[in-house]
Amino acid sequence: MHQSTNLTKFTLKMKFTIVLLLLATPGLVKATDQDLHQQLEHMDALLFENAFNQCDLDVLERITHTDFEFYHDQGGEQDRAEFFAAIRKNICGNPDAKPIRKLAPGTLTVFPMYDDGELYAALQSGEHDFYIRAADQSMVKTGTARFTSLWALHNTQWLLKRVLSYDHQPSTIVYPSQAVERDMDAGFRPALFDTERRISALLKQHHIPSIGMGVIEGGRLQQLRMFAAEQAPPLDAIYKVASLTKPIAALVTLKLVNEGRWDLDSPLSRYFVDPDVAKSAELRSLTTRHVLSHQSGFPNWRYLSPNNTLRFEFKPGTRYQYSGEGFEYLRKAIEAKLGQPFEDVAQQTLFEPLAMLDTHFYWHDQVDARRFQPGHDADGKKLPVARHTRANAAANLLTTVEDYAKFMIYLSAGAELDPSLFAEMVRPHVDVSQASTFALGWQRFDIASTDSQPSEYVLQHTGGDPGVKTIAVLMPQSQRGLVLLSNSENATKLWGKIISEHYGTLGISLTNANFQ
What does UniProt give as the signal peptide span (predicted)? Predict the structure, then answer.
């Protein structure tokens, strides 16, 4: 009996395979009967709009053959019971992250199947797009696929008997083109990490000489990789990381607070006063907390302001405005109080204890210039190297992927801070956008839970100078993280793709949140 059943299934599969082969045969005539096409278009709508999108499983029961089989190029084979269970769990199980299917316009085709001139079935093929719809009804495109369905005509009723779902491709996540500085669309559909050749091709496409990547899982550096358009740099390649300097400076400051050598809420004017703001009424209210949460009231850089002078643009602590000047003001105050260069303070409190041997705030004899990766412009042209000779708490840090990952791992474990101080560091201090806030030294995103991912807060910081683009993403609750260092103006184009491929729905949500 078992052998006979297997033989029957084999025969049915062979018939279905033969039909698929016939689709590629020259001269095969598509259905020209408009009524038939409309009937099958209606059945497709019942299957996907009613059953899949709206989770009306009564409709699915009515239109599915008792001998139904489903074949997925990634999920394998399912019978009717398995298919229904998967729909209930994966498609209809979480209304806050609901998969949605949309038929690609103009792709649906229908082929009639006759037995001695009598219509008994129809083959339907097309392409569709998939999305995740959040609780607020916003949608993020997650991928595309092709499908072929066999509909059997049973007593004038169309019943779905076989489905092939194949050629699944992840979405490239397209965002507004005007967001030039935050362009995360690689324009590259296949999975990035399948082969080294594929990665090299993508880097060449975007004129990106190299990207260093560190992946943190379970509080450990799981992957340390270097990718290049041509020859990959060494694993200990040194990069300038632009504003990824700020989280380092923030933790150095908080370590001083933890040791009782500094105070978050004392006026910085006790230790340092910049001549440009010496007569400003706002001066005495400026604190370290304001600087680390970007509420200092300062512009990003004074050289971008009229007359190249520093001034308060609003009262500290009243709203968010990203400012490198604030971090530099803080550095000068710390140096004035402690009587030490900021580089030395960082070495003592952070770099030496963590064995961050290749991390420095400026160029000096300990920096191995042979390993340094110079920046490149959007056309791939090498840019001149500016060798800064004094610390800047907001930019210009030199480091390696491994060193920065050590810092992130240490931070995710609490950084040996008092628990109340660590909680103060990671809590939201000021709204940045609808989707994010700023903590102390990091931008924070709170990602809602899905059926496969609990809710989690994410700390993120980016860095950008001419020819340099960097990003660090850290999830302290699960002790996961990702750091990407690149010496290219174009590296941001890969961020969304890499983050979404590594972290799935969470990565897509995070990438999408960057544009809200």
Answer: 1-31
- Count the neighbouring beta carbons within 10 Å of the beta carbon of residue 316: 22
- As a whole number of angstroms, the distance between CA 283 and CA 304 comes to 21
- Contacts of residue 377, defined as CB under 8 A and 6 or more positions apart, other chains included, come to 383, 466, 467, 489
Residues near 16 by Cβ (< 8 Å), separated by ≥ 6? 150, 162
Torsions phi, psi for 145 (to 5 deg): -160, 170
**Domain final position from 153, 170, 187:** 170
Query: In total, how many domains does the chain have?
Result: 2
112: which strand partners? Answer: 122
DSSP string, 382-430: BPPP----S--TTS--EE-HHHHHHHHHHHHTTTT--HHHHHHHHS--E
> Is the same domain home to 477 and 355?
yes
Residue pLDDT, tens place only, 67-122: 999 998 877 899 999 999 889 888 888 776 788 999 988 889 999 999 988 999 99
Pairwise CA distance, residues 475 & 504, whole Å: 14
Phi–psi pair at 223, nearest 5 degrees: -135, 140
Q: Is residue 398 part of a domain?
A: yes
In this structure, are 410 and 486 located in the same domain? yes
Under 8 Å between Cβ of 70 and 163: yes
Q: Are 472 and 486 in contact (CB under 8 A)?
A: no
Q: How far lies 448's CA from each of 145, 456, 479, 510, in Å?
A: 26, 7, 17, 10
pLDDT tens track for 422-432: 999 999 999 99
Residues 123 and 250 in one domain: no
**Domain hosting residue 503, numbered range:** 237-513
Kindly report the CATH number assigned to the domain that includes residue 446: 3.40.710.10
Of 133, 148, 170, the one marking the end of a domain is: 170
Q: Is-contact 429 295, C-beta < 8 A?
A: yes
Rounded-to-integer distance, Cα 373 and Cα 364, Å: 16
- b/e sequence 204-223, b meaning 16+ C-beta within 10 Å: eebbbbbbbbbbbeebebee
Among 467, 237, 243, 244, smallest CA distance to 369 is for 237
Closest alpha carbon to 82 in 68, 92, 93, 98: 68
Residue 12 within any structural domain of the chain: no
189 three-class SS: coil
- Answer whether 72's CB lies under 8 Å from 78's CB: yes
CA distance 231 to 212: 13
CA distance 41 to 324: 57
Same domain as 140, residue 247: no
446 and 360 within one domain = yes
The 10s digit of each residue's pLDDT in 182-202 is: 454 545 444 555 455 667 778
Inside any domain, residue 216: no
Question: Which structure tokens are listed for 103?
Answer: 């038929």
Question: Which SS3 state, helix, strand or coil, does residue 250 take?
Answer: helix
Is 282 found in the same domain as 383? Answer: yes
Decide if 42 is inside a domain: yes
